[in-house]
Design a protein that fits this description.
mainly alpha, binds fe (ii) ion, about 170 residues
Length: about 170
């Protein structure tokens, strides 16, 4: 069982992942040596995070009358846009090329648009309507699901290709 020092509120956990994604964007823009490693971590995190939201968080939140189903549905569509933009960057061979910069900025745009909207709609809906006890249960389930996908290497180029094709 998580102790009191481990935050398990699903809203905070999702926000922490979004902030980590922003850090990794900065590393992917920075000196070339760091870019490939940062992309590897980012790819696993983005895919695992979205899987865990769709498996454990979105379905639970839909059940609340005051959380808009359309917002949740829209979140899933935006995950797909993020996956496509991620695949385009994974397919760039030279991390120092103009193509890298171009595909990276498209990925930043797609993901930032989604995290911004998710924070304003879905997560605020959760803050206002879901009791902390339930948010903590969802947080535990979210982390478990996310970590399972990260361990399985869900951000590999083959796995992202399969996801985009599906
Ligand atoms: Fe998210
Ligand atoms: Fe999301």
């Amino acid at each position: 069982m998580p102790d009191k020092t481990t935050p398990t509120d699903v809203v905070e956990l999702i926000l922490d992942d979004h902030r980590r994604m922003e850090d990794l964007f900065r590393q992917m823009r920075s000196v070339e040596a760091e870019r490939a490693d940062a992309l590897r971590e980012f790819a696993d995190l983005l895919i695992a995070h979205a899987h865990a939201e769709e498996a454990e968080v979105y379905p639970a939140l839909r059940r609340y009358r005051d959380i808009d189903d359309d917002e949740v549905e829209h979140g899933v569509e935006e995950h797909e846009d993020g996956n496509k933009a991620l695949l385009a960057l994974l397919e760039v061979n030279d991390v120092g090329s103009d193509s890298w910069d171009e595909k990276l900025e498209k990925l930043v745009e797609a993901v930032s648009h989604h995290t911004d909207e998710e924070e304003r709609t879905i997560l605020n809906g959760a803050r206002e309507n879901v009791a902390m006890e339930r948010r903590e249960e969802l947080g535990t389930a979210f982390t478990k699901e996310r970590d399972k996908h990260i361990k399985a290497g869900c951000g590999s180029i083959d796995s992202v290709r399969r996801l985009v094709k599906a």
